[in-house]
Recover the amino acids of this structure.
């Protein structure tokens, strides 16, 4: 869970640098949910899992994003845990905070590039 909180903090700090400052914790939770589901779907695709039945992969992804965002909302925002996380990581020096930002950006790039790579491999 510490890694998940670390990524949430990175998204939160990133959102503070955008126009979404007033809702940074909500936006961070949403982007973290989307990125996590994309990575989870990529892992399932690598393992060869194909959904069967009436649920398409898009419907499954939407359901999982909603469930994960609900978890993020309850865990980080409803319990006000994000304030404790921000206080804990803000105590770190500038070098560690920059490292956190690099990790977050790498997570974003990897989450965006994974579907593109899979699409190119299927062509």
């Amino acid at each position: 869970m510490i890694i998940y909180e670390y990524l949430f903090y990175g998204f939160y700090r990133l959102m503070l640098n955008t126009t979404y400052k007033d809702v940074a914790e909500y936006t961070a939770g949403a982007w973290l949910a989307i990125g996590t589901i994309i990575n989870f779907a990529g892992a399932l695709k690598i393992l060869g899992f194909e959904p069967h039945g009436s649920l398409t992969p898009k419907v499954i992804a939407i359901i999982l994003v909603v469930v994960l965002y609900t978890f993020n909302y309850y865990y980080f925002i409803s319990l006000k845990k994000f304030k404790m996380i921000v206080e804990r990581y803000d105590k770190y020096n500038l070098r560690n905070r920059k490292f956190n930002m690099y990790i977050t950006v790498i997570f974003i790039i990897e989450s965006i590039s994974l579907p593109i790579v899979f699409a190119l491999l299927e062509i």
